[in-house]
Amino acid sequence: MKMKKIGKILLVASSENTMELKNHSQMDVGFFLNELAVPAQYLTEHGYAVVMATPTGKTPIMDAGSNNVAFFGNNDAARKKALSFVSTLQPLSLKQATTELNQFDAIFVPGGHAPMTDLMQDKDLGTALQYFHEKGKPTAMICHGPVAALAALPNAADFRKAMVADDLGTAKSISQNWQYAGYKMTVLSNAEELPGEVKKHDQMPFHVADALQTAGAVVVEKGIYTSHVIRDRELITGQNPASDIDLAKELIAALQEKKGK
Fold first, then answer.
1. Is 130 exposed, middle or buried (0-12, 13-18, 19+ CB in 10 A)?
2. Where are the beta strands (DSSP E) in 212-251?
3. pLDDT at position 261, please?
C-alpha cells in the first residue's frame, strides 16, 4: 500500500555538464548522486512527492565521480538504490515550475559543481527563491548548492561575472539588498575544495564560500568532510556530501513546524 502524499518538494538541478576553470579549461560537472538522492529519498519516505525541475527541462547529468560507494557508507546496495531512485525523476522546466509554486512546500537544491554555472544566475530560480522567501517556506541546499541562492539577486549574471573576474568590489556592490544578506549559512569550504583543485592543477572560477560571503551571507564552516547543517529562518544549508541525511532531517523538521503553525 502506497503512502498518501502529504505535500510536494521542488528539487532544482542544473542543466549544465561543463564549467570553465581559471585557466579556461573545461571541467565536467553535474549533480552529486548522494546529495540529490539521499535527501530526496528521505523526503519521499516521509510522505512528500519530489518534483524535479531544471533550467532546460531536460534530465540533469550526474557527476561521474559521485557514483562511488564511499559516499554511501561503503554500502553498494544504497548506491544502487540511489541510482534507481534518480532514474525515476522526470524533470519539468524551471519556467513551468514557477507557474505552480504555490503547490510546493519546500525547495531543495543538491550540490555538485554544476550550480556554479547556470543555477546561480537563473532568473526562473530567482523567482522561485523570492517566492519561498516571502512565504517563509523551507529552502534547503547542500555542498555547492547554496551558491544557487545568489539567483535571487536582481543582477545575478553580473554578480557571477564579477566573481569570475576577481572583482569583489563590483560583486559586493551588485549584491546590495540580497534577500539572504545576514543569514547564517554553510557551503563547501575553500579547504574542502582545495584537494580537487590541486588534482586538476587549476582553480575553480571562484570559491562558493567567497561568493556567498561577498554577497552578505554569514558563512559558518565546521571542520572538513564531516556533517554540518545550519538552519536560519527558512534557509537550511549543508556543508558537504557528509551532510546529506542531516540536511534531510532538518528539512523534515522545518516542514513539520510550518504545517503546525
1. middle
2. 218-219, 229-232, 235-238
3. 61
